[in-house]
Amino acid sequence: MNLNNSRLLDSGVKEICEGLKNPVCELEILKLSNCSITEEDYLALASALRSNRSHLTELDLTGNDPGQSGVKELSDLLQDPDCQLKTLRLLQSPDAEEACKYLTEVLHIKNPLLLRELNLSERELEDTRVNQIAALLQDKHCKLNTLMLRKCGLTEESCSALATVLRSNSSLKDLDMSNNNLQDSGVKKLQNGLENTNCTLQKLRLSDCSITEEGYKALASALRSNPSHLIELDLTGNDPGQSGVKQLSDLLQDPDYSLKTLRFLGPAADEACQYVTGIVGKNLLLLRELNLSELKLGHYGLMKLITVLQDKHCKLNTLILNNSDITEEDCRLLAEALNSNPSNLTELNLSGTKLRNSGMKIFSTLFKNEQCRLKKLK
């Protein structure tokens, strides 16, 4: 029986179920594709087939919405040796079918449609495979909440495919694309999905993805267009340029935005940043000048500051350490930190310290770094 593309409503499905329960029913194939069937209808069909297990061998429900439990109720029947059901079609797209096949045969996942979390990290996924997974995520029979794609060789085209998923109002809430060379071009593709009002993603991780200031601006623009969903954004290990941090940090202060957690720094640098911020009373990542002349940082505090200075999210231009207790060893560590992130600091003031010439000479190495912008050393 082929009832594809019929508007059955609950009443129509109920009548079909009554027929399926009848012991004299010998129907073997039932096609109900694109019939606006709901979770309640899936449960009714499962119940009918349990009542009379001896006839139906093929059921097509592609293009419908099974809700949270519809897939499991019917999939369980395939495992029942007393039930004749052998073919259960749920996925409309051939690409989605291929994704399911890959997850079943390669990753040995028994029923991918029952997954809530999928970790494909460190698997080299070609664009074709990402497109297939994106097709699966767009099907209402897929209820995946968390997708991890760390270090998968994702490309700009991969970002386009996943942006389509974000626009489709899928069940996906947590997406990790860290350690992929997405660059700003990839982020701009994601922007097309994030700014869509259908997007309900809550957590996005883009750590170490070669994103620069332009990419940060694209993300800020996307969240301004659609402020109600994303609550956590991880951008550790990227380079925000001069304005990237502020562009996104401003969103945290606005009550109209859902964003609550914005990660720029790794755990050690984040702890250090909070420590120094607590001392100076201002967000260190938003400062261009830091004057610690009147503060006694000590060796511990200086080490915390050095940890933050090494991160590209720190954009200090001027650092004043007058009258501090800085030692020659502290100078060596500070110079190493500035050499690892040399493109911002233009002035370093150590006048009033007890350093000898040997201590000051340590900083002369900075001028040998071609990327160093240091112009004043006092």
TrEMBL record:
The keyword Iron does not apply. Pfam families: LRR_6 (PF13516). SUPFAM superfamilies: RNI-like. SMART domains: LRR_RI. It comes from the Eukaryota. Transmembrane segments: none annotated. Keywords: Leucine-rich repeat, Repeat. This is Uncharacterized protein. It comes from Sinocyclocheilus anshuiensis.
